[in-house]
């Protein structure tokens, strides 16, 4: 006043009644290892309603450290900041809540797994064990890595080693986001393989099994009874082993056969035939106890047997030969051989023993040894056969197909033969001729009267030359038709000249169905004799031109095909 001034100083303090949080929390050290010791600093700023920092205020801070809920009371400093150290054992976000004057503020801090304390949890998960020891199948081991608080640890390197000659694509693996890593192992050696894994000086060893590889070599086998068996190995084990392999089989082998348990080879002599059976062969690795199996089929055929039906034979030179001297049964795929070599032009069927061909050179009597075994080396059966090649009779088939009729006599030569060496020929026929017929064995004539109908049948005429002993055969056919029957219906008839005539004199049935008719003497002028091919009716028809006195006419009806099928009937005819 009046040009003079005076000053007084007053003091204002923050208004604690209006305490509140200002700004955002200050977080330092996040993320931090979730090891329960390394802390994250979280600061909360407290001011009054006018924004003045409030020191010496009690701020309650709470959070979950992964094991329990934690609560601490911290006083604000001169700047109004309340700071707390927050630790955790659970990886991930952790909410930190501060409370003052009935108000709350929250901060989020982050904890990550503690790689420094990396270690395995539990035992690895093994899949695919036991596996084939041929490098085609693999075994997978899956490891899980955590820190000391149990948090899964990604991106951690596990070093791995294997023994027992096992192989893998790599020597280390890295954990994924779930803290897991898988390791694949293969082996060509059966037995136990130890897989050793290490991380952060933590080690774990796991045993896995590779089983011996057994494969069927002979899936199906037929052996022969009484035939010794050596070195029959139906299976093969291709993997190596540090131990000893032993073999077993189920069900039991047929009587006479044994299994070598050290090699898997079957040997012995089958005692009798047995049906095809499926067997299971199992191989066991003595070092690990691992087993593997495969199956195969085995049967025993009846013992090889040979019977002889012909001991000596004269063959016809330049003629077809089809000779069966032995009959082979049993065994598996018989093998037939002969010594010395057969005459030129002849061949031996090595499976059946049949001798076929056309011998082209004359030979004297020769003794041949026929030997029979089979693919299983059954004991050899030996038999002898005498063969001669000589000129045989020349044959001509006169009648290849002959139709006869029941009741019609026959006498015919179906086959004509001549001997090139002037020998006497003898004849025989097979199968037996139809009932009522017989064969003259000295000239080959078939004669007689058939008694019953028979269909077409093929017969074989065999002709033997008495001088050379050689035989030749040809075939011909015989059939026996129903009986040839003529039934007369008109015996006497008087007709009128210049008037149409149609008289059914008789009817014909049976035989071949192909007939012809004739009359003697000739019928009166204008009349004709005919036969209906369908009905078999024999008819006199026409218009007689002049009168004719009574006359007996002989009408003959004959089968055009069947020998001896003929019948003559009489018609007494007058023309007025």
TrEMBL record:
An example of a Gene Ontology cellular component annotation for this protein is: cell outer membrane
Q: Sorted alphabetically, which SMART domains does this protein's record hold?
A: BID_1 (SM00634)
Q: What is this protein called?
A: Big-1 domain-containing protein
What PANTHER family does the annotation carry? ATTACHING AND EFFACING PROTEIN HOMOLOG-RELATED-RELATED, INVASIN
Can you tell which superkingdom this protein's organism belongs to? Answer: Bacteria
Classification of source organism: Bacteria, Pseudomonadati, Pseudomonadota, Gammaproteobacteria, Enterobacterales
Looking at the record, the residues that make up the Big-1 domain are 22-112, 121-211
Cited InterPro entries = Big_1_dom, Cadherin-like_sf, Ig-like_fold, Intimin-Invasin_domain, Invasin/intimin_cell_adhesion
Give the similarity note.
Answer: Belongs to the intimin/invasin family.
